[in-house]
Amino acid sequence: MEPSTSTSVNKVKTKQSSKLSRFLTSRKAAPYVFVTPFIVSFLLLFLYPMIQAVIMSFQQVLPGQVEFIGLRNYERLLNPEFYRALLNTSIYVVFTVLILVALPVILAVFLNSKLLKFRNFFRASLFVPALTSVIVAGVIFRMMFGESETAVINEIIGFFGISPVEWRYGSVSGMFLMVMLAAWRWIGVNILYFLAGLQNVSEELYEAADIDGANAFQKFFSVTLPSLKPVIIFVSTITIINGFRMFEESFVFWQNNSPGNIGLTVVGYIYQEGISQNDMGFGAAIGVVLMIIIFIVSIIQLKFVGAFKED
Amino acid sequence: MKKSLSLLLIPGLFLAACGGNGGSEGAGGSEAEDTSVIGPDSEEATELTFWTFNEQHIGVYEPAVKRWNEENPDRQIQLTAEVFPIDQMNNNLRLALQSGEGAPDIADIEVSHFGSFLEGDVQFESMNDQVEPVLEDMVEGRLDLYSKDDNYYGLPYHVGATVMYYNEEIMDEAGVDIDSIETWDDYVEAGKQVTENTDSMMTTVETTDQFTFWPLIAQQGSDYFNEDGEVILDNETNVESLQFMNDMVHEHEIAEIAPGGDHHEEQYYGYMNDGGAASLMMPMWYMGRFIDYMEDLEGKIQIRPLPRWEEDGNRTSGMGGTGTVVTNQTEKPELAKEFLAEAKLTEEGNIDLWTELGFDPPMYSVWDSEEMGESNKYYEYFHDDIFDMLLELNDEVEGLNITPETSDVTNEINTNVLNSAVRQQSSTPQEALEQAAESVRSGMSE
C-alpha cells in the first residue's frame, strides 16, 4: 500500500506545481505578473497621493478641522509671490536647458575623440560632481561666493580690477549661482548620455562625409547632431522637468528666505506655504498647478521636436 | 582604464557620503541627528520621548530627570531626547500631529512657529494646573507667548531680555564711557565717535533675520500684531524704527549690515571676533554664541541695558524663545506634565537654566539667589554683574502678541522688508512695511 500512496501524493504535487508554472508561463498572464510590482507601486505611491493632493487643494487642513473651502486656495495663487516663483523657475529652466544640452554635447564630442589624451581622466573628473550631495556642494559654493572681499571668487575677480560682488543679494547674480551649481553638478551625467549616443553613430556616415570633403564643423552639424537627436530630446525633457522641480539649489544658498525672493522657486513656495506656514491645502494647490504646467510644457516640447511621430 | 576611473571616484563617493551628516539641515530624511537617553535603564521606568532642535537644551533635562527619580522612586522615568534640525523637526511634528500618530511626549517649538501650531484643534495638553501655582514668580509675558484662550501650552526656557553687548576695548579706544549712553541719540553720537577714532563700526544690523527690527519696536511697546491679532506691522512706530535702522547704516554711517546677513553666520562670527563692530544688540541667550564662536573677545565684553527711546521708556524687550509642550499623543499625560514642570517651573530647574545653558531664567524669584551668583564660564567671559542688571529690567520686559500668522510676518520681514528698505534701499520704510502688511492681511483667512 505504501508505495502507491506516495506516488499519489507526488502526483498531486506535480499537478499543483505544473498548474502554477503553467499560469506563470502562460502568454496571457506573464506580462501582467511582471508589471504587477510597477502597477502596485504606481497606484499606492503615485496615483493615490496625487488624487489626495488634488482633493486637499480644495480644503483647509488643520489638525482636527479639515473643511472644504472651494476654490479659495486657487484664488490666493494670484499673488506677486507666486508670479515671482514662477518667473524665477522659468528663467532657471531656460538657462539650465541651454547650458546642460549645449555644453555636454560639445564636451562629449571632444571626450569621444581619439586625439584627446587622458580622456578617461577627464571623463571621470567631469562625472565626480554628480556624486556629491547638493547640500555639501552648496555650502562650499556659498563660501566661495561670499560677499566679503576675501571670499575666493571676489578675490579672483579682484585681480581683474572688478570690485567685490554681493553674490547672494542681487537677482542676476543669485540666478547665476543657482544655474552655475546645477550646471556644475549635472554636466557629467549628461555627458554620459551623449557619449553613449555617440557610440551608436555609424562610422560610415563620417566616411561618407569625408569623401564629400566635409570639414570638422560640417561633420558635427550634419552628422553628429542629427544622430544625437533622440538623446537631445531625452536630455532636454529631463532637464526641463528637473528644472521645474528644482528646490535644493535655491535652498542651499538661502534656506527658506531669499532677499527679495530672488531665489524663490515654485517648489520652494510649496515648501514655504504648505509646510513651514502650515497651510497644506494651499501648498497642494500650488503643487497641482505646477503639475499642470510641467505637463503642458512637456507636451509642447515633445510635439515640437516631433517625438510623437513614428519614424 | 577601469582602475583609474574607480580611483577617481573615491573622493567623490566620500564627499557624497558626507552629505548625510554635514548638510542634512532641513532637506529630507527623518532620522534624528543625535539621540541621548537620560535616566535609569530599568523596567519600571516609564519611557518619555523629547524632540528638540537645539542640542544645548537637553542640558536642563539631565539634572531634572535625576531629581525627579530621586523624589519619585515609584514613578521613575527615562527620557529619550532626539535632536533634529529645526525645519525638519517642525515638519515631522506637524505631520505627526496632523495624522494623529508618531508625535513624541514632549517637544520644543520655537516661538515664531508656535502660533501656527495652535491653529485648528490644539494638539497639546494644557499646562494650567502646573503653571498657576507659580505664576506669581514668573515673567508672565513669556508664558503668554505660548498660550491660547486662557490655556498655557508651552513652558519657556528664558526671558530673552535684549541687551547691548559692548566691546569695551574699542569703546575705550574711541573715548566713550558706555555708562554715559542713556538714549538712542547718545548711542548714535557715541557711534560717530567710534567710527571717527577707530577702525571699527559701532554696530551691525540684520537684514535676513529679525533680531534688530523686532527688539527695536518691541522696546517701544509696538509689535507685528495687536492684542486682537490684527496686523499693525505698518504703524508709525514701526516705520520710524525701520527708518532709524536705515539711518544708522546710510545716514549716520555708524552701522553696517551684518556680514552674512544676520548674527548667526560664520562670516559674522569671524568679523565680530576680529573687532569689526564695537557693540551688538541681541538677547541674553546670545551669550553662548560669544563663548562658542568669539573666543578672542573673552573679558572684553560688557553687557548693558538698551538705550532708551524716551526718558522713562523700557530698556529691554523679551526676544526669541522656545516653548516646550506636552503633546496629546502621550500615553502618560500627567507624568509628562509633572516632569516638565519639575524641569521648568521649579527653582532648581530655573537655576539649571542659567548654570547649564546660560539663559536668563523666566522665574525671576531665583535671580538673586545664591546659586546664581556662583562663578561659571559666563561670568568669566562677561563679568559678574549680569543679574543685578537683569533684576533692574524685570518690569520692562513686555509680552509679544504671537498669532498663527507670525511666521508669515517673519517671512516677509526677512525676505522683503529689510532687504528692500535697508540693504537695497529700493523702497522707503513706509512702502516696504505697508506692502508686507498688505500681503499678510490678504493671506489671513476670512
From TrEMBL, chain A:
CC annotations in GO: plasma membrane
This protein's record includes keyword NADP: no
CDD domains referenced in this protein's UniProt entry, alphabetically: TM_PBP2
Topological category with respect to the lipid bilayer: Multi-pass membrane protein
Record-annotated ABC transmembrane type-1 domain positions: 86-301
UniProt KW keywords: Cell membrane, Membrane, Transmembrane, Transmembrane helix, Transport
Spans traversing the lipid bilayer: 29-51, 91-112, 124-145, 175-196, 228-247, 280-300
Domain of life (superkingdom): Bacteria
GO terms for biological process, alphabetical: transmembrane transport
Pfam families hit by this protein: BPD_transp_1 (PF00528)
Localization annotation: Cell membrane
Key word Cell membrane present: yes
Annotated family: Belongs to the binding-protein-dependent transport system permease family.
The protein, known as: L-arabinose ABC transporter membrane protein
UniProtKB/TrEMBL annotation, chain B:
Signal peptide bounds: 1-19
SUPFAM superfamilies per record: Periplasmic binding protein-like II (SSF53850)
Origin superkingdom: Bacteria
A Pfam entry, by short name: SBP_bac_1
Keyword Protein biosynthesis: no
Keyword set, alphabetical order: Cell membrane, Lipoprotein, Membrane, Palmitate, Signal
InterPro entries the UniProt entry points to: Bact_solute-bd_prot1, SBP
Region (Disordered): 422-446
Kinase keyword on record: no
Name this protein carries in UniProt: L-arabinose-binding protein
Annotated source species: Salibacterium qingdaonense
